[in-house]
Amino acid sequence: MPREIGMLMLGVAIGTLIPKLPAPIDLLQPYFWLVFFVVGLILLIKE
Predict the structure, then answer these.
(1) Domain count of the fold of the chain
(2) Residues 4, 16: Cα–Cα separation, whole Å
(3) Which residues does 3 contact at the CB level (< 8 Å), separation at least 6?
């Protein structure tokens, strides 16, 4: 289960980095994607 959540978080992190997509989250918090990326990576490694 944590592996799937990790993959989802990595997907969200990458999704916020793609400039083509509107990312209001990225405008509010520039490092928001980094939090998702780090947490997702930790969950993947822990598994």
Answers:
(1) 1
(2) 19
(3) 43, 44, 47
For 6, the token pair is 């990790």
**pLDDT above 70 for 39:** yes
Containing domain of residue 38, as a range?
2-46
Judged against a pLDDT cut of 60, whether residue 41 lies above it is answered with yes
**Residue 18: how many other CB atoms lie within 10 Å:** 9
Put simply, whether the predicted model's pTM sits higher than 0.90 gets the answer no
Here the tokens at position 4 are: 């799937």
CA–CA distance, 4 with 17 (Å, rounded to integer):
20
